[in-house]
Specification:
It contains 11 helices and 11 strands. It is of the alpha/beta class.
């Protein structure tokens, strides 16, 4: 049986979250539609599948179903069109809570003076359920069908049992579906694991799927010049899989019979507007295809999550 290979894209939006989160870095605020389309084309070329986050209220700039501050309606609409038509056919779509930054008072719509990870730590299951239900509702209102949840940073890790329950109850409340999943655990430097079930109640089941690599592409946006970023991108690819296929994190996972679950972020591929991370991703995909061939198969995240409840998967 071929091993699954899957790509995690966090922080998806038509605006660049690093612009607000890391003001010390010179970053464009707006991510052009041409970049989103180029990512979709690359994935189509190599058959890439996985998980793609769309922030419902990106960086607190507004609801994507109502309009964003600083961004034209045309630009937002084009981003959502490319996601619907070019990305969603191969990627499971998730909210990354609501803003990936400050929590929102969902009654008034106002931003709170704490980030979402801190808010979740102190929230009840019902409060989290209402919050996540809004996230699902916003994505569905723009024609996206979410299948799980992405956690900003380590959101939910301190009260994970309650967090998983809230995800399951919110998803059932909005979609009437009984199975869902979330991405929270990053095990790139830890013992790898297959997906596992976290919470069950009657017919409701919630699984979690971990990342099994670090985001090596992130460093492409930390460089001072495009040339330096490009060099860093080449090193990133080697960390994942060397050109001869004999070393790298993906080789380790393959040899250990674990799924090749690759983590990156939208801004890591955008690379301060240089797209060098995206170029590095293309080289990674080419190496995966050349080295592993039909011994691996690109897999959507929801299908990975369902492996947690199948008896024929060799969990480790």
């Amino acid at each position: 049986m071929p091993l699954p290979v899957s790509l995690i894209i966090d922080d998806g939006a038509c605006i660049n979250p690093v612009y607000w989160l890391h003001p010390n870095l010179e970053q464009p605020m707006r991510i052009p539609t041409a970049f989103t389309a180029a990512f979709a084309d690359l994935c189509a070329r190599y058959g890439v599948k996985g998980k793609f986050s769309v922030m419902p209220i990106p960086s607190g700039a507004g609801r994507i179903d109502e309009g964003l501050a600083y961004i034209s309606k045309a630009h937002l609409d084009e981003f959502l069109r490319v996601v619907r038509e070019g990305i969603a056919p191969s990627f499971d779509i998730t909210p990354e809570l609501l803003t990936h930054q400050q929590a929102v008072d969902i009654e008034s719509g106002r931003l709170l003076h704490l980030f979402e990870d801190e808010w979740v730590r102190g929230a009840s299951v019902e409060q989290m359920t209402a919050y996540l239900s809004l996230a699902f509702d916003i994505l569905r209102s723009v024609g996206l069908d979410p299948t799980g949840v992405t956690s900003p940073w380590s959101t939910g890790i301190q009260n994970e049992a309650q967090y998983a329950e809230a995800i399951g109850r919110a998803y059932y409340r909005v979609t009437r579906r009984t199975f869902t999943w979330y991405f929270l655990h990053c095990l790139g430097s830890a013992e790898p694991r297959w997906p596992w079930v976290v919470w069950r109640a009657g017919k409701l089941t919630v699984a979690t799927v971990p990342a099994l690599t670090d985001d090596f592409y992130w460093r492409t946006q930390d460089q001072a010049t495009k040339a330096a970023s490009r060099r860093e991108g080449r090193e990133c690819v080697d960390h994942l899989l060397t050109a001869d296929g004999k070393a790298g994190k993906l080789r380790e996972l393959f040899d250990g019979s674990f799924p090749l679950i690759i983590l990156t972020h939208w801004q890591s591929l955008f690379s301060r507007g240089w797209w060098t991370g995206l170029d590095a991703l293309g080289e990674t995909c080419e190496r995966i295809q050349r080295v592993f061939g039909d011994r691996v198969v690109w897999t959507r995240f929801g299908d990975l999550a369902r492996m947690a409840i199948k008896k024929d998967i060799p969990h480790k």
